Amino acid sequence: MNKATITEKTVLIPTYKSAEPENSRFLLEQDQLFAKANISCSERLAVLNQHKNLIEDRDTLCLAYVTLLNENGLYKEALNILEHHKFHVWEGGEGKIAQQYKTSLFALAEKEFKDNNFANAIILAERTIHYPDNLGEGKLFNVPDNRAYYIIGKCYKELGKRDNAYKYFDLATVGSTEPEPVRYYNDQPSDYIYYIGLAYLELGEKEKAKKAFNNLINFGKKHINDKVDYDFFAVSLPELEVYQDDIQKRNEDYCKMLITLGKKGLEYSN
């Protein structure tokens, strides 16, 4: 969709909304168009906050709202909705709700860690390992928990419980350190490799850590300019968008993220 078309529609959707102000689908489409037009997360959240009565009418709209809360640093507010709203994941959007659930919990766990509330941080990190029923989806067998185990290990280290700390650092190193592309629901983002590297550093295995970080950098550089597309017969696309997403840009952003994480890890290694 070209920019002119997006601009036209960002004007039209509010017109439709004024005709049917209680139509949650129009509100959802307006937000998705705002995102395509690069309107800031804070502005988009402000618009949705004006229509809070509609947010939970539609799962996709509720997820969009929760995502914006997280992106604006309002993790407690996001988690409160994720704990109480009953989501219904059918054909599309799988994985996105669980990802926002983990985003909220990890951010809150890391805040508790910085505030020296290590017991609270452990509880929050542990909650990411199992999904509550109201999220409407189970946890896939290949979803990594390296970040959770690493945070728990760091907490036990600060609490002076050395054996427990090393136990969780060991758990945090489990898994492949070879990054993979992400296109479908069951493809897991390779950012977990960053936490494998950090755990290796805690265990004193510097060379293994560097290898993990370099793998992230090398993969990102190698694949950032790949021409990507969906398989014609794909049945597990994690999409909720009314308007087609730019998967080329998504691949570029993903590769940039892996490169950034790899370089950050190498800085810790020096």
Short description:
By secondary structure, the protein is mainly alpha-helical. Helix content is 63%, strand content 0%.
Helix content bin: 55-70%
Q: State the order of secondary-structure elements, H for helix, E for strand.
A: HHHHHHHHHHHHH
Question: Which regions contain 5 or more consecutive residues with pLDDT less than 50?
Answer: none
Distance between the termini: 45 Å
Strand % is: under 5%
| Main sheet specs | none
What best-fitting shape do the alpha-carbon axes yield?
globular
The number of helical elements comes to 13
Q: Can you count the beta strands?
A: 0
Q: What's the alpha carbon Rg, rounded to whole Å?
A: 20 Å
Average pLDDT taken over every residue: 88
Structural class: mainly alpha
What can you tell me about this protein's structure?
- The structure is a single chain.
- The chain is mainly alpha-helical and 270 residues long.
- Helices cover 63% and strands 0% of the residues.
- It has 13 helices and no strands.
- It has helices at residues 3-19, 24-36, 41-49, 52-55, 59-71, 75-84, 96-114, 118-127, 146-158, 162-172, 192-202, 206-223, 247-269.
- Helix 11 (192-202) runs antiparallel to helix 12.
- The longest helix has 23 residues, at 247-269.
- It is globular, with a radius of gyration of 20 Å.
- The N and C termini lie far apart (45 Å).
- The model has no long low-confidence stretch (mean pLDDT 88).
